[in-house]
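quick one, 229 residues, struct below
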Amino acid sequence: DELEALYNEIDPNHTLANYDMPDINSPIQQLSTNGEPVQTLAELYEVAEAMLPVFTTKIESLLEQVKTTNSAGEESSGVEFKLPPWQHKLKRRQRAIEKAHHEYSEKEPGPPESWLNDIVRGSVLCNEVDQLLNVLELIRADESIEIVKSKNRFRSPTTSGYRDWLLHLQISTEDGSIQHICELQLHLEEIKEAAVKLGSHKYYEFFRKYYAGATDTLEGRLDDLRMIC
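---
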């Protein structure tokens, strides 16, 4: 497997795979502006729109603390923060409707929309293993962030062989009046680029349709596959 061979080359000691942090999956619903679980997609997007700049500022401020020195002796972060490429940056509403219906329609307590934790999402691209670990440790040390979900895909890669680290982070406004769970993916840039070249997105599209409406186990696999695109 090309992705496995690449990971072994980048991280020969499997530092990421062996990192001492158990996976986390806390069942926490998204909250509306009144502090109660969201009841509609409109309520969910109202909070998401308000929290997108808060999420962006928080992650960018953490990444400012990740410093490396390049060959010219210049200091830089060596990491890149990316939001989705489309204009509004939030998950597209039609995709959110589909996901709520196919993956959370039977999840209790409802409604399904309250379990969508990736309306606000972003990615961090790291050049080196140590950089990714540094980012992760900064997130863990930040008392204003609660990690409600963590999947170490370097330890347990997706069906396509892709490896990254998936986080769902509950972030609050400065006054604590609004909370929202946002998704952050931590990637190694070489693996991300190789996955694109190998056509991993085609695997995702196939399995997304194949597993729609399946059991919790299969939904977990679908969730894994979604991260490669």
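The chain has a mean pLDDT of 87.
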